[in-house]
Write a structure and sequence with these properties.
207 residues; alpha+beta; NADH Oxidase; seven-stranded antiparallel beta sheet; globular; disordered N terminus; binds flavin mononucleotide
Length: 207
């Protein structure tokens, strides 16, 4: 009975945390489940149709962690490599209520801008509107000198592929996209000089 009550409380907390605007506290990422790496690679493809079903918090946590979470806490290193371990890539989560920054250390999504900012990521591709969420990968080009600045974009690509592979292995759909309103997003996400929205990923369950 106590266990059932605890589970019911945890579920209610998860729903209310999701509904609440300031911070979405994510459950600890789980490394269990999903297809093998070879089956995942077999499935990897760009998918532009999404179920409108909201993402479960556990799936969202796993997805963010797979994209750019901390997989070696002793060194704070990440699931995605970055040139010279600069860790200059930031992941943003956008749903119909707001835009959030993924804080890998606290395993939470922190609100950066309230409101529906989908128009900035849709950019003439209406299928994006059906996705319950869009992940935006931002890289800070200013951490590299000019000869190495390509690394900032390369590092964003590493995160993008992690997202694609996670989705392919977990019955989810996504497509890496370069299309978006970069200036509009830079304003809404309060990006600083040198920070560039490189790619975005609509994400959702398979339709
Ligand atoms: C850097 C990059 C940018 C892309 N931009 C878009 C985009 O803006 N819109 C889109 O629908 N697909 C975009 N794609 C997806 C490609 O069209 C897709 O990967 C390609 O057609 C091959 O299909 P596949 O991913 O299923 O193998 C992009 C892919 C990459 C790697």
């Amino acid at each position: 009975m106590k266990k059932i009550l605890t589970l019911a409380f945890a579920a209610a907390f998860a729903v209310s945390a999701f509904a609440q605007d300031q911070t979405i506290k994510l459950p600890a990422p789980s490394v269990k489940g999903g297809l093998s790496i070879m089956e995942t690679l077999r499935n990897r493809q760009s998918i532009r149709e999404y179920s409108s079903k909201k993402l479960k918090l556990q799936d969202l946590s796993n997805l963010c962690w797979a994209a750019i979470g901390i997989n070696r806490p002793e060194s704070s290193k990440l699931t995605a490599p970055t040139a010279m371990n600069k860790q200059e890539v930031t992941l943003y989560y956008i749903d119909h209520k707001g835009a959030y920054i993924y804080n890998a250390k606290s395993n939470a999504l922190e609100l950066v801008s309230k409101g529906n900012h989908y128009d900035l990521v849709v950019a003439k591709q209406d299928f994006v509107k059906d996705a319950p969420a869009v992940l935006v990968i931002v890289s800070n080009t200013s951490v590299f000198d000019q000869t190495s600045s390509l690394y900032a974009y390369t590092d964003a690509g590493m995160v993008s592929q992690n997202i694609s592979l996670f989705c392919a292995g977990h019955k989810m759909a996504t497509v890496p996209r370069g299309m978006m309103d970069r200036d509009g997003l830079s304003r809404v996400l309060h990006l600083r000089s040198g920070e560039v929205p490189v790619l975005n990923h609509p994400v959702g369950y398979l339709k």
